[in-house]
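User: For a reading group we're discussing how well predicted structures match intuition. Take Coenzyme A pyrophosphatase. Before you show the prediction, I'll give you the sequence so everyone sees exactly what went in.
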Amino acid sequence: MDLESITNKIKDHTPAVLGHKQFMKSAVLLPLIQKTDELHVLFEVRSETMRRQPGEICFPGGRIDPQDKDPQSAAIRETTEELGISETKISDVSPLDYLVTPFGMIVYTHAGLINTDEQFNPNLSEVEEIFTVPLSFFLERDPEIYHVNLQVKPDKTFPFDLVPGGENYNWRTSHIDEYFYIYGGKVIWGLTARILAHFVELMR
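Assistant: Thanks. Here is the predicted 3D structure of Coenzyme A pyrophosphatase, as structure tokens, for the group to look at:
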């Protein structure tokens, strides 16, 4: 391969997260809703029948499907499906920072306004409960943050003979920060709390 071909291939490449094709990609919406004279943040409680994270509190969202135009479209679609509202009730959707997790996921986050006085008709196979919390609650307090240590454990077939130090190789370790908000007995934590803390920081 000649230098010109190599240069052209590099010029035509759009940078992305290395290995992103193997990552699971999902999109979520942090929904704001006007109640009386104050903005609230809307949350879902995941159904106890869900295979992953049953009973946990989350924002509407899910896997990005091939038919979705972009992550924002996926976030809106998932919100309509889970809350039982029409797309016309969702407005002012904007992207927030996206997350790359240590577990092979890219999460595209958004915030938007739900304009409806109607009753929600949630998909009960996914959503057990819907509740809201005044935005001011989060603006007035910081989350509790705890550390979870991550350790490296090579597979039994790992070729230690090919790396300097062999089985005594000095692997780099790390940790993740887990955020917690507690409101009226409701525990908001994990990625949901992390997204919420990022949104609140933008508002401040």
